[in-house]
Batch of 2 targets.
Target 1
Amino acid sequence: GAVVSQHPSRVICKSGTSVKIECRSLDFQATTMFWYRQFPKQSLMLMATSNEGSKATYEQGVEKDKFLINHASLTLSTLTVTSAHPEDSSFYICSARDLVAGANTGELFFGEGSRLTVL
Amino acid sequence: AQSVTQLDSHVSVSEGTPVLLRCNYSSSYSPSLFWYVQHPNKGLQLLLKYTSAATLVKGINGFEAEFKKSETSFHLTKPSAHMSDAAEYFCVVSFQGGKLIFGQGTELSVKP
């Protein structure tokens, strides 16, 4: 099946610094990628929809200046957590839909997730 | 409006016994429905999907789910649990634009 790779899998940073997380579709093209946030023992919360070549669409309550999303190519989307604070510590997961395989079914392929810890 | 409800936050079974994880949905359209599994600190893996073809869907690792429109349900089952099945399971509804709505998740524990 299609593979989505996230990097880094774990990152620890100091409060006030910025952290970039990459999401790559390895063997397919994705015009749309999605970024989720997951708190411990909770479900995934959609943060934003990343569209290749255009601005991301953020869900209500998600600060666009805090969580910068760039989707520069059909295989790469990045999430940058700016001026990170301890409350930003979370598990961030990206997903992408294969233009061919998933187009009619809505199936998304998920990355392995990135664990962010802000000290 | 679309929504999905997983009726149990935690299910515990003994190894070798059947598994039933319940999911009900609400959708104005014909939905696509999925079950995903998440192991600790990992991303999500697709178990199976329903996309308006056969109502009984077979997935990986012996799991299957039946779409019942009259009951608006999509329960996940497995005849015999294995220790490696212990994980978090999410029932998911897909609607236009590719957005997914996630259920709250059900944690499956498997006792030896």
Target 2
Amino acid sequence: DTGVSQDPRHKITKRGQNVTFRCDPISEHNRLYWYRQTLGQGPEFLTYFQNEAQLEKSRLLSDRFSAERPKGSFSTLEIQRTEQGDSAMYLCASSLGGIENEQFFGPGTRLTVL
Amino acid sequence: AQRVTQPEKLLSVFKGAPVELKCNYSYSGSPELFWYVQYSRQRLQLLLRHISRESIKGFTADLNKGETSFHLKKPFAQEEDSAMYYCALRGNYGQNFVFGPGTRLSVLP
């Protein structure tokens, strides 16, 4: 296990198209997080899963965004009808939970909407 | 509302000089504070957390609840400390982490 992986690493799409990103967490980690990061800003929390349950969603997550973690392992983040403002780095992180709860981040997926 | 501010976008110091990266937060309860670091072409990673009260790579940070600050300090900066540093907060409830905008530290030879 080489850590959190994300696919694809880069995605260029036209406005109005749908895109889907995948995150594979560290295998024994039951918590999974999605963040969005735009230029010059820190990561912004989007959503959080504990196993397969989506327990928190940011108000930033409009109805065009949906995330799933169907078997409590990998997760997908889908953006429908993309807009230019969706262009950002999308980061995934996972953690074991408990008191330590250190988040391990993936390399990110960079989305460019033309 | 939870908020984290880092007033400096860029901080440049010479090798061997002390460094302090500022972080202030707003939160009504007792938050958990973190510092994350991102070295060039690497992933974001945890540097330290206030509950651990430990020194990592020579860095320390003390939570000052009166001033709502969590400044990151190192007495003698090294060139390999050059990186992007993010202060982050997690509130008492849930897993919503709030990150600051980050400070780029540049340690000059």
